[in-house]
Structure formats: structure tokens, C-alpha cells
Design a protein that fits this description.
four-stranded mixed β-sheet; 3 domains; 509 residues; 18 helices; D-Maltodextrin-Binding Protein, domain 2
């Protein structure tokens, strides 16, 4: 095994941490919000186990018809326009007699602008979910609870009920995600493996139930033995979070039903995971030099890259259409009782003081119904797995058709322009991608980590450390082999100081 490569400090992760937060905050309604979100070691996926009553509101007597309304205009605060970026939903919304008015802001000013509007009594009616919406935004009274207006036991929402419960805040529900997105996975270049004569395929290991921390490490060791400039994995802004989650434990847990915020930095599972990641770094398996998914695998010398699935895989495959890019879930922890997996969600919130709550809830319901519609699901699969895709608008007659698999315009028969960046996904990979966003999955138990849901300062500390690169709690062990024991002892109190104000707000809510 080669000597450990010199690895840069967590300071170089600062720009990455910022970019990852921006990526989360600049996606469209149809895009994904990266990173782990929220939950508890006690509230994982479809299994909610708390001492309190977790089924408050949202059922008996709850109805959109009870929601306040001031007409047919939905005021949307965002850094993109739903009228163009979510046109299909807006068209259905228009059929119900509504229109969308956009209040523009930037991703950087989003929370500041929202707070100003709420305080001034001129609240928008709907905003999108961000990492810091829960618990930060909820704790600061930026949103209103929706339990009186949504029946979580209805056919529309029952499939998301347990996921919604992960966002319970002091017995109420402010954020109602309408879909689960795939979380963080490991993407890799199968062609590079084949070229180097390595016959072990991570995806096949996953299919056989043998994709674990140990088999992952064994493969990376075999890969890195090829040469000193070969690396096993490139961490990103998520760093240790999805691996910690694979133990069944979250770093920080918001147990809203019991009004608790739990710092698990001293949990044995967290220690064990961080020690394992530090070991990978010390053995020279980790590439700490970050690059985007469209370039991180192109030299064929870094085997795995840690990214959110949708953005990571599609970007990497589109950049290398002549090679086979695949992905696998975060490997299973052999010592965990189940296959725990990080995940992500998307949806909307209604700001406190909103005057047209009914319009917002109508929009949210349309999104959910479109999400579970069988025809939409079939169409999504057809487009994802199609060998070629074509742009909707016909270059001849100008008529648009949503079916991007059609080579010829259904209106005039002219050939539509091909999307040269389309990366077709195999049937097997597509089925895995769907299982990774299935809230009722029997394969995975989803754990949501609240660690990025508090202040920006805490997120920066976790991902990048302070201005001197110290205290990089999630990145230090993984990127540089830094002792997690030392980090834990040095910064546990600092993290607690960030969490204490949120605990007080929750207790007083």
C-alpha cells in the first residue's frame, strides 16, 4: 500500500460547503435539495418510536376548505419563477382558477427577505423548503402549522405520513413534503474498473446483499494499489453525514414530538463511523481535492465520489457518455440491525401571516397528486431510460409536446432537436433510484439527520471548521484523518452552544 498522500486541510472545504448550501438553495421546484435533512435515531423512515403522541392534528376534521383565502392569487417568494420553472403544475393550478405572483429574492437573501415580509405583515403565501427551514425557520416563527387543513390519513398523503412525522415540531407540522428524493450515494466509473481489470462490481455486491463498509474498503484498497495517484473516494460537502446515518444514528436529532434536540457527537456509533473514515484517510484512500461531478471521475483515477444521486450521477454520466457511470447506496454498516440510508425531501411551507393559505395548500396538493399519478411515473421512467431524448418544442411548427421520447413532432411530423446531453439510465439503476426515494421502502430504513438545519455558523463548523480549518467535525476525520476523539472533546461544547437557543425556543413553543 502506498504511503499516505499529503492531504490539504479542511480550509479547502470552506468553498465547497458554501457551494453545497447554495446548490440546495438554488434548485427549482422540479430539482432536488441536497443533503440529509431531519429525523431522529428513534424516528427512521416508516418507523416512528417516541414516548410522546406523534399523531397530533392533520386528520379528523382537517380540510383545505377550512383554510383562509383572500382570492385567486398565490404570492410566491422565491429565487425562481414557478410560472416557468414549474409550468405543468402552474397550468393545472390555473385550471382551478388560480394564478401565481412571484416575489423575487436571491438564495443568499431568502431567509432575510422572508423574515422582513413576515414581520411587516405582508407575508407571501408559499415558499420552498430549505435545509434551514427546519428547525431554524420553524423555531423563529417564520411558518404556520398546517395540521388543521391537511388530512395525513387521506389517500393523497398517507404514503408520506411517516416522512411528514419526521418534521414534527412540538406536536405540530409546518413542513409537508410531497415527495422523497434520493439522498447521497456513491457514483463510480464502471468503465475505469473494467479497464484496470478489476472484476468486482459494487452494484453487483449491492444486489447480492454484500455491499458493506468492509467490502467497500477492500475494493478501494485494490484500486489504490494500482498506483500512488489512485484514490478510493472523494468526499463532498456531506462528508461523514451519510456514513454516520448508515449506523442508524444521526449526528443531531430533532425529536419534535418530545421537544428534544439531541447532540449525538458522543454516541458510540458516531465514534465508530468517524474512526473508520479516519482510517480510510490515513491509508491514503481519500482524495480531498474536490471537483464537480462532471469532472471528478474523468481521469479514471478516483473510483468513488460522494454526491446527491440526481445531480451527481446525471452530471457525471453526461460528461462521459462514452463510459458507463453507475451508482450504489452508501454501504451498509455490518453492525447495524438494518440497512439505514440517508434521504432527502422536497415540498413547500406556508409563511406565518399568509393570507391565501387555501391557494398554497391547493398548489401543494396538486404537486402530491402529480407525484403519485401512475401515468406520470410511467412517463418519468420512459424518459429516464430512453436511449435518446428530444426537446419539447418543434423547430418547425413551434408546437411543444411534453413527451420528450418522441423523435418526430406529433403535430407536423418534423424531427425534433435531440438533447445531446441526455444520459440514459439502465433499468436496474432506475429501479434502485426509485427505491431510494420510496418512503415505504422495505429495503432501506431512512434516517434524516438534522445537522444542517440550524444556523449557518453551525453548518460551517460541521462541514469546514473555523477560519483556521479547526473543528471540522464532519470533514476532519474523513478528509485528513484527524482524530475524531480530539474533535469531539474540543468542540462538543461549541456545538451545544449553537443548539441551546433552539432547545429553549422549542420548550417555549
Amino acid at each position: 500500500m502506498k504511503n499516505k498522500k499529503r492531504i490539504i486541510s479542511c480550509l479547502l472545504a470552506a468553498a465547497l460547503a458554501s457551494s453545497m448550501l447554495t446548490a440546495c438553495n438554488t434548485g427549482t421546484a422540479s430539482g432536488t435539495s441536497s443533503g440529509g435533512q431531519t429525523s431522529s435515531t428513534q424516528s427512521t423512515g416508516g418507523e416512528t418510536s417516541t414516548d410522546g403522541d406523534t399523531s397530533s392534528g392533520g386528520s379528523t376534521g382537517a380540510s383545505i376548505d377550512n383554510a383562509p383565502s383572500n382570492g385567486t392569487v398565490l404570492k410566491w417568494l422565491g429565487y425562481y419563477d414557478l410560472n416557468t420553472d414549474d409550468k405543468e403544475i402552474v397550468d393545472i393550478f390555473a385550471d382551478k382558477g388560480y394564478t401565481v405572483e412571484t416575489i423575487n429574492t436571491s438564495s443568499a437573501e431568502y431567509f432575510t427577505k422572508l423574515a422582513q415580509l413576515v414581520t411587516s405583515g405582508d407575508s407571501p403565501d408559499m415558499v420552498r423548503y430549505e435545509w434551514q427551514s427546519f428547525p431554524h425557520g420553524v423555531s423563529n416563527n417564520l411558518y404556520m402549522p398546517l395540521d388543521d387543513y391537511i388530512d395525513f390519513d387521506s389517500e393523497t398523503w398517507v404514503g408520506m405520513k411517516d416522512t411528514i412525522e419526521n418534521f414534527n415540531y412540538a406536536g405540530k407540522h409546518y413542513y409537508i413534503p410531497y415527495r422523497m428524493n434520493s439522498g447521497v450515494v456513491l457514483i463510480y466509473n464502471q468503465t475505469a474498473l473494467d479497464n484496470e481489470g478489476i472484476t468486482t462490481d459494487p452494484f453487483e455486491l449491492y444486489q447480492k446483499g454484500e455491499w458493506t463498509w468492509d467490502t467497500w474498503k477492500q475494493l478501494m484498497v485494490e484500486w489504490c494499489n494500482i498506483g500512488d495517484d489512485y484514490y478510493g473516494v472523494m468526499p463532498t460537502g456531506f462528508v461523514a453525514m451519510p456514513f454516520i446515518v448508515s449506523t442508524g444514528t444521526s449526528l443531531i436529532d430533532v425529536d419534535g414530538a418530545n421537544k428534544q434536540i439531541i447532540n449525538n457527537m458522543k454516541d458510540p456509533n458516531v465514534q465508530r463511523c468517524q474512526d473508520f473514515l479516519a482510517e480510510l484517510s490515513k491509508e491514503g484512500l481519500v482524495n480531498a481535492e474536490y471537483s464537480n461531478p462532471d469532472s471528478c471521475l474523468t481521469d479514471g483515477k478516483t473510483l468513488f465520489a460522494e454526491f446527491g444521486l440526481d445531480w451527481g450521477w446525471s452530471s457525471a454520466q453526461s460528461a462521459m457518455l462514452d463510459q458507463e457511470i453507475k451508482f450504489v447506496p452508501i454501504p451498509r454498516d455490518e453492525k447495524a440491525d438494518k440497512y439505514y440510508m440517508n434521504s432527502d425531501t422536497f415540498g413547500y411551507l406556508v409563511p406565518a401571516g399568509a393570507k391565501n393559505v387555501k391557494a398554497a395548500l391547493t398548489y401543494m396538493e396538486i404537486c402530491r397528486l402529480e407525484e403519485i399519478d401512475p401515468e406520470n411515473r410511467a412517463s418519468a421512467k420512459a424518459m429516464a431510460t430512453a436511449e435518446n431524448l428530444y426537446y419539447p418544442k418543434c423547430p418547425e411548427c413551434g408546437v411543444s409536446d411534453p413527451d420528450k421520447t418522441l423523435k418526430n413532432c406529433p403535430s407536423c411530423g418534423a424531427e425534433r432537436r435531440q438533447n445531446s446531453k441526455h444520459a440514459p439510465m439502465s433499468e436496474e439503476l432506475y429501479e434502485l433510484s426509485m427505491e431510494l426515494k420510496n418512503p415505504t421502502s422495505e429495503e432501506f430504513t431512512f434516517v434524516f439527520d438534522d445537522c444542517f438545519g440550524f444556523s449557518t455558523d453551525l453548518t460551517t463548523l460541521l462541514q469546514s471548521g473555523n477560519e483556521d480549518g479547526e473543528g471540522c467535525i464532519l470533514g476532519g476525520p474523513f478528509r485528513t484523518g484527524e482524530s475524531y476523539t480530539n474533535l469531539r472533546e474540543s468542540y462538543f461544547g461549541t456545538v451545544e452552544s449553537y443548539l441551546e437557543p433552539y432547545r429553549a425556543l422549542m420548550q417555549n413553543s
